[in-house]
Amino acid sequence: MSTVHFVFGTLLAISMSFIGDVAFAQEGPVKPFKDELFSRFKVMESADGGAYKVVDYQEMRDINGRDSEPERRVKSAYVSLGVRRAQENETLSLSGRKVDVTRVGDARGAAFTVIFIHGRGGDRRLGVNDYTFGGNFNRLKNLVTASGGTYYSPSVRSFDGDGAADIGALIRYASEQSGGKPVFLACASMGGIICQNVARDAQAVRALGGMILLGGPPDAGLAGTPLAKAKLPIYFAHGSADSVYKADDQIGIYRGLQRSGYPTRFTLFNTGGHGTPIRMVDWREVLNFVIISHR
Known about the structure:
Blueprint: H1 3-15, E1 17-18, E2 21-23, H2 35-38, E3 40-41, E4 43-47, E5 52-56, H3 59-64, E6 67-69, E7 73-74, E8 87-94, E9 97-104, E10 113-117, H4 136-146, E11 150-154, H5 161-177, E12 183-188, H6 192-199, H7 202-205, E13 208-214, H8 226-229, E14 234-239, H9 247-259, E15 264-270, H10 276-280, H11 283-294
């Protein structure tokens, strides 16, 4: 690590940390929500001025210690269920096709919109489950709605052009409902195929504010897409031990973007597996990064 990176990292740790822990969440329009539980990570390695981080992840602590029933139900301290009052299931008619979604927040006038795309075997229920994945979706819902945003968790019928067309239509719909405010697309696992397709959809990209890729497949052509040409921020999170999509392949995509001065960040969870980013990513840090970088 260079001297410049070392000094930067030291100052960051002093200004954003508790003793022995680095608070990952940067300041911005999205205000704290249970940061003491979700935003304290030990940074094991930092590079690129802090844009690239390897953070400590331990299964016994971060699953068994966090859940009352491992991988099934997080401890009650990690959730706040009042947000359910703002949650509704809907079937939207978009471009002549029906799209099932769960919406959290107001249908109109959102300050920003977040759309989460599940992976294979999931549906809209996954992205709004308060208790699985360590309570991270409950936190996401609370962070978004408390900041005047709207959150959508759609069911993706197919991970191909048709499925991507549905999501592209949802992106445009959300942008229209909010009066043109930014829409951020987050794709997990195989859902990353949807993000890859949307990145190539110039019409959808015009309504996007940025993209979040959680344990997804690498896209060798990402730098040449309308998304990248528009310099929309991209946040990557991956587990170092992911056996489905290798972390090094995704890091290579990030490196290519970062060298060109692209607004991007990468968080690598040390020893984490395929589902680790969904459980562990710090949504407040993510949202503040993409919102601030989009401006």
